[in-house]
Amino acid sequence: MPATNENDDGRRFLSADLGEISAAPPPVPPDTPAFLITKEHRRFTEFATAVRTNRHIGVCYGPPGVGKTLSARAYAGATEWEQWQRTGQTNTEPVPARVLEARTAFWTPTVTISPREIDRQLPRICQRISWAAEYTLEGNIDVFEHRDSRASGLTELLIIDEADRLKPPALEQVRDYYDRHTMGVILIGMPGIEKRLARYPQLYSRIGFAHHYRTLSTEELTFVLTNRWQELGLTIDPRTSPTPKPSPLSPASPTATSGSSSASSLKSRASVTSTSSTASPRKSSKQPAKPYSSAPDRAI
User: Fold this and answer.
1) What is the maximum span of the chain, computed from C-alpha positions, in angstroms?
2) 48-72: per-residue pLDDT in tens?
3) Cα gap 73→157, rounded to integer Å
4) Which end of the chain has a smaller Cβ tally under 10 Å, C or N?
5) pLDDT in tens, 129-160
6) What is the C-alpha to C-alpha distance for residues 156 and 53, in angstroms, rounded to an integer?
7) How far apart are CA 153 and CA 175, in angstroms?
8) How far is CA 55 from the centre of its chain?
């Protein structure tokens, strides 16, 4: 917007006590890496679709840096939606297809969020998604004629990232918003958030799904690194990768003890063990260890 006075160069903004003029996100850098679909993202997609279809509250937890936020934003089309909104009323482009397909609102609370702010922000972001769906379906937005889009009626899922920031009153406000609408809600947080929510019976009784977002496997990590390195013009040559050194405690490595006394002590222990086993063979009272198997997503 040009300055109202031709002699005004806007220098006053350098020293004035002003905050951010617009809350719109900055443009996406052109060198941003493309999102890669992994096995964990597919599992998250199945989880989010189940919550969205059944209109339950779901909990997604996992260690930091594994991709929870990226998967949630990709599912909701949050980046496309934010960049589409940057142009404001002058935007003539159609609503992004992913936003219309997911009908999901993505929201990250601030650290000092209050129930009053939640009561003001959630209806606004969810209503915008509902109006975007109505505008695409009907060609216009008429709150009196098209009643389905009222009260965020066309929004099917709300994803709340960084849910660990929500204090008990804020969690109760989210539960109240969920009770007043017909959409699913996903709370994303760190490991332990599912135990914390169990302290609130009214909220916990509405949780229908829990999803553990795991770290990438070695094969998937190699796949991600290979694609990223190709974008940078680099290659991964397994022949030049350093060979891991054997652990001093591994069976294939030599023992760290010195002298013949240690070797003889090991031999003596082995002879005592073999002698006792041949003299009086007995069945071990210990049960064989059961192989660990990771449990799939559970429904509470």
Assistant:
1) 104
2) 999 999 999 999 999 999 999 999 9
3) 12
4) N
5) 998 998 888 877 776 677 777 788 899 999 99
6) 8
7) 17
8) 19
C-alpha 20 chain-centroid distance: 27
What length does the chain have?
A: 300
pLDDT value of position 291: 40
| Close Cβ partners of 89 (under 8 Å, ≥ 6 residues apart) | none
Q: Is 105 helix (H, G, I), strand (E, B) or coil?
A: strand
Rounded to 5 degrees, what are φ and ψ at 256? Answer: -85, -5
Which of helix, strand or coil describes residue 250? coil
Token pair listed for 41? 């993202």
pLDDT for 184 equals 97
Place of tokens 């109505």: 134
The amino acid at 116: R
CA 289 to chain CA centroid, nearest Å: 34
**Residue 158: its H or E element:** strand 157-160
